[in-house]
Recover the amino acids of this structure.
């Protein structure tokens, strides 16, 4: 059975990890080592704990009154097989999916192991956190270089289409 390495149990009712109230899946392990990272404890590739994919899916689906789920970390794209397995089940239940990554969308398109995961993501916040570009005025991202991407439209158009989070 496929497992995922998590940094912590899922978090519910987040208002900073995407539009609406969101459940967050905290992936363990990151190789970007961004200066000023606010999730230092999620960087160790061997830290955290392993959990069965089905247990994560059931925990997410059991939460009520959520707008969707967000994959964060750590770096979800370091565990694309596990994240894809979770995302596929959640999407089949109608769950809206956001994902944060330090990789760029273009880099992910060149990674066969991440391409399938992208098929299930509605919105991707891409790019490494850059301390010099940090701003508290940015919506759903930490630094100005990061993009909020409408993944289905971007895959269809074969170019980055930015997501407009405001109604």
């Amino acid at each position: 059975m496929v497992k995922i390495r998590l940094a912590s149990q899922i978090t519910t009712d987040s208002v900073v990890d995407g539009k609406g109230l969101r459940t967050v899946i905290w992936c363990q392990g990151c190789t970007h080592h961004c200066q000023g990272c606010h999730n230092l404890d999620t960087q160790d590739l061997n830290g955290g704990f392993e959990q069965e994919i089905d247990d994560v899916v059931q925990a997410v689906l059991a939460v009520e009154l959520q707008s969707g789920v967000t994959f964060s970390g750590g770096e979800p794209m370091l565990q694309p097989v596990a994240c894809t397995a979770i995302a596929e089940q959640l999407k089949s239940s109608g769950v809206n999916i956001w994902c944060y990554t330090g990789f760029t969308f273009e880099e992910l398109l060149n990674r066969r192991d991440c391409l399938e995961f992208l098929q299930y993501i509605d919105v991707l916040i891409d790019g490494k956190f850059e301390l010099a570009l940090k701003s508290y005025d940015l919506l759903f991202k930490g630094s100005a270089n990061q993009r909020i991407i409408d993944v289905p439209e971007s895959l269809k158009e074969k170019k980055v289409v930015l997501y407009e989070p405001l109604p």
Observations:
- Helices lie at 53-61, 80-92, 105-109, 112-118, 151-157.
